[in-house]
Amino acid sequence: MTPQSALVPDVAVPRPTGPAPQAGPELLRSVFRQHAAGVAVITAAGRDLRPVGFTATSLNSVAAEPPLISFGVGTGSSSWPVLAEAEHIGVHVLGEDQEALAATFARSGADRFGAPTRWRTGPEGVPVLDGVLAWLVCRVVARVPAGDHRIVLAQAVAGNPSADPSGRGRPLLYHQGRFNALRD
């Protein structure tokens, strides 16, 4: 029998030269610029029923049973005071042609729900954006402190997996500090 090491060619493994960058905010940002992420918009309605929302690239599927998702939100975000108390939130997966919508919800001080944004009040009173690839309405089950952010865990209660009437189904991505689309 041949030892396992005999199956692996003898290749020189490059070693890093110099000291590794110190871990901190800039290192984290630099590393995650290399990571392509899907783009979503998170929405909620305040007690005064005014909608809030923001662009998120931290959306994750957590579990299928029960159907749980998570996302991060900064506690300094203008949406945080509403999200800190909201019982339900909306999650909207954006299509490759919705860069302007993503930019609107990412811009501080923007009228995010004014024209040309199209939306309606959905299940549980949550603002639901029209024309997105897919959406969920979720019940918030936890808000976990994580530095200057909170990780929100929420259970899906309603949604539409193919809300885009064109059926294109191609997601908007965020990579290298800008919005991108998939390439064939």
CATH class division of the domain at 39-104 and 131-163 = Mainly Beta
The CATH architecture term of the domain at 39-104 and 131-163 is Roll
The major pleated sheet works out as: 7 strands, antiparallel
**Share in helix:** 10-25%
State the fourth-level CATH superfamily of the domain at 39-104 and 131-163: Electron Transport, Fmn-binding Protein, Chain A
Please tell me the overall pLDDT: 88
Characterize this entry briefly.
One of its GO terms (biological process) is pyrimidine nucleobase catabolic process. By secondary structure, the protein is mostly beta strands. It has a domain of 99 residues: Pnp Oxidase, Chain A.
Topology:
Blueprint lengths: L24 H8 L4 E2 L1 E6 L5 E6 L3 E4 L4 E7 L5 H4 L4 E6 L5 H8 L12 E3 L5 E3 L4 E13 L2 E12 L11 E4 L2 E4 L3
Antiparallel strand pairs: 1-11, 2-3, 2-6, 4-5, 5-10, 6-9, 7-8, 9-10, 11-12
GO biological process, one term: pyrimidine nucleobase catabolic process
Organism: Streptomyces candidus
Keywords: Oxidoreductase
